[in-house]
User: Fold this.
Amino acid sequence: MVLQLLEQHGWVANPKKCEFGKQWVHYLGHQISEQGVEMDQDKIKAIVEWGEPKNLKALRGFLGLTGYYRRFVQRYGELARPLIELLKKGKFEWTEKVGTAMATLKSTITYAPVLVLPDFTQEFHLECDASGGGVGVVLMQNRKPIAFFSKALSEGSLSKFIYEKESMALVMAIQH
Assistant:
């Protein structure tokens, strides 16, 4: 089917770069199978084993790696917020709050779900939620996640009513 679609559109596949008859393939840090898409286990291990950053460069590296997989992590924006805020401050000061945020993020990534591949013949469901510090969205089919999206709210948005925050979550999900 894939080869037929490529041919229909005048595209060519390089046989040296193709894999046939496999149960799964690794692609751009993901393992893809008929069950869906999951994080590469080596990347999960690298995240879990990442030591406490001693400077902004190391922290940016950690956030870059975890941020690449944010669609697997429900409420990533809120979980990473203390770490991201540390990037904005003038002085790099590791606190217990930041350490707890890093540990929680590592733990959450360890249990990241397999994201199902979308079936465009079926209905999509979007669940939006807002809490005190952020908004979260999950795109699903048949009660299984396709992707997560979240964002920590700005200082100006924190004082909004909950229905306004949930409306913001819906708008952000559609824009995303």
The domain at 36-111 is CATH 3.30.70.270 (Alpha-Beta Plaits). The mean pLDDT is 89.
